[in-house]
Amino acid sequence: MNGSRGCFFNTVLFLICVFLPVVSHIIETVMIWEDEHSPMGKLVWLLIVWLIPIVGSLLYLLIGQRPPSGNYIRFAQPSRQA
Fold first, then answer.
1. Longest dimension (CA), the chain
2. Model-level pTM?
3. Where are the domains positioned within the chain?
């Protein structure tokens, strides 16, 4: 009985410690590639995120993202009437 419970907790521990950080890094890598940084800026952010796991991700999410430039629909702004 204890063996099956240990297997369950090992699986949960694996998901928390290995799977979720890898998936979040992959998602953040896609976010960096789609952001409007220069090629060197993208490379620097990718290195920061992948080499400094938790701190790099937080830095990018807090200060690294750029607002999109262009004619995007932004919420809570009045529409322009011609």
1. 72
2. 0.64
3. 20-64
